[in-house]
Amino acid sequence: MKGIMKKAGAMLLAAGLGVSMLAGCGANAEQAVLDGTKTVVTINDEAVKMGVMSMLTRFQQAQIYQIYSMYFGTSQIFNMTMDESTGETYGETMKQQVLEDIERMVLLRQHAGDYEGIELTEDEKAEIAKTAQAYIDENTEEIRTKIGATYDDVVELLSLFKTQEKMMTAIGDAVDQEVSDEEAQQTSISYVAIQKAVESGESSDASAAESADESKAAEPTVEEQNAEKKADAEAILTALKDSDDPAEADMDEIAKEENEDYSALTGQFSANDTSDTSLNEEIVKAAAGLSDGELVDSVIETDTYFYVVRVNKVFDESMTEAKKDEILKQRKQDSLDTLVSEWKDAASITVDEAVLATLTLSDSDVFTLLEADPGTESTAESAAESVAESTAESAAESTAAAN
After folding, report:
1. Strand, coil or helix: 206
2. Model confidence over 122-134: pLDDT tens digits?
3. I need a labelling partner for 370 at 20 to 30 A (CA). Which of 24, 55, 64, 90 fits?
4. Which whole number is the average pLDDT over 173-193?
């Protein structure tokens, strides 16, 4: 869940100046009016008003609500318990993350003088002012009061966004931009993975167990099934070896000729750091040191799979170039994180916990993104879809863990 929260923050930045798209669900009589004029955190004597934090929080809340509703079919998000020992909800966890995001942006702006040319242009200021006014015009007074953010609060938040963007570029440009072939070298492989059969769970119902026993008597045992699966893998390997050109043979077609449920997959690992991969370590161990187009000579057996493996390219140029981009991106992120961490350690940061407590996130009080005009797609919506696709797996895992 924390992963999707961080990416939602990145999505907010990617959505540009889309805060005018925010809308609420209506006033909640039980909810106290939020006083956006109060200081929620002070960073090196710079006070941040609750209105600024509330604006950021509600926009991220709306985006996450949209992602979960659209892709996971649930809107019960913010009341989920994230820590059983403390009872902390996702809403409370998210609020702390937003506070950290605010602190980060303020620290970046405070250190903008360390870099050349980090200032907002007149055009950027005009665009920010235009968007802040749109927030005022497109949301009712009731909703704006509920959010607690004024025109000036929106201007402040968007200014922080833009300065953060410029600082991220400047800090990234300052790191070593060169990534060597040796550091990034990727070896590409193709492989067929045949999953082993496992023992099924025993039934606690006596009659069902008796029926299952009778059924099992007519079925191959797990050992027999796996012997057959291994024979399939060996047949696929033999067919590859016997082909006119094993390096170019269609592994997927050969696998399907053996069993239509089988298919070939592709993968990669870092040639000079074989732990840098999502592949099974036995595959990498067997493939490392082979030449282009060479087959692993025998079927690889693990606890759960039989594998047939071929090295496609020891030095895969396209994958290596993509890895270089990934390494450089991570290098820039690490530099940014290190600097912000150092600045934060040296800073004087005071949070007013009483003011912070007045901002609540719950499933009974949600905010949404307004619909774009028919026939158009809002920047926020397209950004939401992009981030949702990249975070679907981690978000689903987080939801399952929370439940």
Report:
1. helix
2. 999 999 999 999 8
3. 90
4. 97
Specify the residue for token string 């493996």: 309
Query: Bridge-partner residues for 367, per DSSP?
Result: 24
| Both tokens assigned to 312 | 């496609």
Residue 245 pLDDT exceeds 50: yes
For the chain, give the mean pLDDT: 84
**DSSP secondary structure, 12-73, as one string:** HHHT-SGGGGEEE----TTSPPP-TTSEEEEETTEEEEHHHHHHHHHHHHHHHHHHHHHHSS
Residue-wise DSSP of 326-393: HHHHHHHHHHHHHHHHHHHHHS-EEE-HHHHTT---BTTB-EEEPPPPTT---HHHHHHHHHHHHHHH
Q: How far apart are CA 203 and CA 214, in angstroms?
A: 13
CA 150/CA 55 separation, integer angstroms = 9
Residue 16 has pLDDT above 50, yes or no: no
Q: Which amino acid is at 196?
A: K
Q: Where are the beta strands (DSSP E) in 75-129?
A: 81-83, 88-89
DSSP structural state of residue 196: P
* Gap between the Cα atoms of 41 and 49, Å rounded: 7
What is the identity of the amino acid at 32?
A: A
In terms of Cβ atoms closer than 10 Å to its own Cβ (0-12, 13-18, 19+), residue 357 is: exposed
Q: How far apart are CA 283 and CA 65, in angstroms?
A: 40
Span 311-328, pLDDT tens digits = 999 999 999 999 999 999
Q: How many CA atoms lie within 13 A of 331 on its CB side?
A: 16
d(CA 320, CA 327): 10
Please, where are the H alpha helices in 174-248? 181-184, 206-217, 222-242
pLDDT tens digit sequence for 317-371 = 999 999 999 999 999 999 999 999 999 999 999 999 999 999 998 888 878 776 5
pTM across the whole model: 0.77
